[in-house]
Structure formats: C-alpha cells, structure tokens
Amino acid sequence: MLAVVIVSWNVRDLLRACLHSLQLDLADAAPDARIIVVDSASSDGTPPMVRAEFPSVELITCDENIGYVKGNNLVLGRLEAEPTADLQFVWLLNPDTIIHRGAMRALLDFMRSHPRCGLCGPKLLNPDGSLQHGAFAMPGLVQLALETQLLLWRFRNTRLDGRYDPARYEGLPFRVGHPLGAAMFARVEAIRQVGPFDEGFEMYAEEVDWAMRMRKAGWEIWCVPQAVVTHYGGASSGQVSERAERLKWRSRQRYYRKHYSPLKRWLAMRLVPASYRWPAG
C-alpha cells in the first residue's frame, strides 16, 4: 500500500493542480493509495477547496504553520501508529508539483525491483519544460566553497557543485547522494529503521540528513528518470524569503555538526557567511 503526503501552506491553486494530476496518475498505478494533505493554517481557503473538490483526500488542518518537517512527521507518526501492516511506501510530495502520467508506476516498479533502495526521486522539470536538477551528490566543502566564494562562482551548477550530468536524466535510473525534497519516494521499512525527519531542521537540509542516515544504515538512494514531475519551486518558502535564508544556513550548519568530522566541520564553519554563522559548539 502507498500513502502520498502533501504539506501545504497558502498555495491553494497550486495544490489543486497537484491533486488533480496526482489522482489521474494514481488511477492507473495505485487506485487504493491514500492521499493525505496537511494544511499549515493557510489563509487562502485551502481547506474548503480540498473538502469540496477532493472529498477522498484525507485532510489534516493545523492551527499554526508547522512547516514541512513537522507536517510530514505528523503524518508519518500517525501512519506508524495505525494497526494496518500493509503500508510499504510513502511519497512526500510538495504542493507545487504536477505529476506526469506514468510517474507513479515508474517509481513503484523501481522500488519493488530494488529492495535495497530506501529513498528515490523522479526526474524534475521546470514549468517551462527544462530540466531541474532533482538529485545531488552529498554536500561537501567544495560545494560550500563554490556557493560562498565569489571567485569560484563560475563553477556553480556543474559536477563540482554536486550536479549530475543532464544526460543521465535521459537514461536509466542512477545512484545519487540525495533527491530534492520536493518529491521523495521512501520505503517504510527504511523509515522505521532510521526514523522520521530530524525536527531540528525546520526547513532545508532535512532531506540531505534523512538520505545520509539511510546511507549509513545501508540503504541505497536513487533517481528514477522514467518518473517525471514538474516542480514550480519555492512557492511557500518564497513567501518568507528573508526568514527562509536564515533557516537555510542554520539547517546546513546543523547538518555539518551531525555528519562532518571535527576538522571538516571547522572548515565548513569558516566558509559559512559570517552573518549566518552559529556560535561555536
């Protein structure tokens, strides 16, 4: 059995389009799948829209904006507590996505044929149809330097910056460091082993941490280009851009402290912009 989880905040029209495309694709590949929407206190009429137009969707409404991480964890915790034992996969999907027909079938077929894959993602496209990098190598000091050092900016968005060759998205599934959090397809067995998201990551880097924990536990991480999803990107976080930038750097530093060696962590902290740097510790 499959559950699709969408955490939404003030993106009613995008969510409507997402749910419509999702239901069309599920009708072909997984008609018994559950769709669960967590609304984080939207003020744009999202809950009434979901109730009226998508009555089969399970809606959880929150009194405050609890964010992506807590919203997904809320559902993961409820699913784990339910007596049913046949839940195999969870697709964590952003509301600003459009599912192309056949995406669900491709992801399900891949996961069933690769039992050591704990986490995978689809091929992502921008709204204009161009490729959006939807998978990355695990972040290291080189990527951090390319982002923060002006003289190195010409190397951004290259293989040195953790990007994969665009040609790979036209071929067979391939191993990656981590998928972008917009459309992560996870195996429940892997989630049970490593746990849900670390709620110390309010926004950003939570998917990198999750993938790293799965990798350390022996699970594989893949990209499945045969599954295609259009991702608008930043629809919710863009509404609070200044706060989002602070949270991005705070989350990254949490990741460095969890997964980097002492020397590598020290070097990373020197590369973080001073205005966003946490106190040492």
Write structural notes for this entry.
This protein is of the alpha/beta class. 38% of the residues lie in helices and 21% in strands. It contains 9 helices and 12 strands. Strands 1, 2, 3, 4, 5, 6, 7, 9, 11 and 12 form a 10-stranded mixed beta sheet that branches. The relative contact order is 0.16.
Summarize the structure.
The chain has 281 residues and is an alpha/beta fold. It is 38% helix and 21% strand.
CATH architecture assignment: Alpha-Beta Complex
CATH superfamily: Spore Coat Polysaccharide Biosynthesis Protein SpsA, Chain A
Question: Could you spell the SSE succession in H and E letters?
Answer: EHEHEHEEHEEEHEEEHHEHH
Helix content: 25-40%
How many separate domains make up the residues?
A: 1
Shape: globular
Distance between the termini: 43 Å
CATH topology description: Spore Coat Polysaccharide Biosynthesis Protein SpsA, Chain A
Radius of gyration (CA) equals 18 Å
Number of strands: 12
Total of helices: 9
Helices and strands: which structural class? Answer: alpha/beta
Compute the average pLDDT. 91
Report the top-level CATH class. Alpha Beta
| Oligomeric state of the chains present here | single chain
Low-confidence regions: none
Largest sheet, if any? 10 strands, mixed
Strand residue content: 15-25%
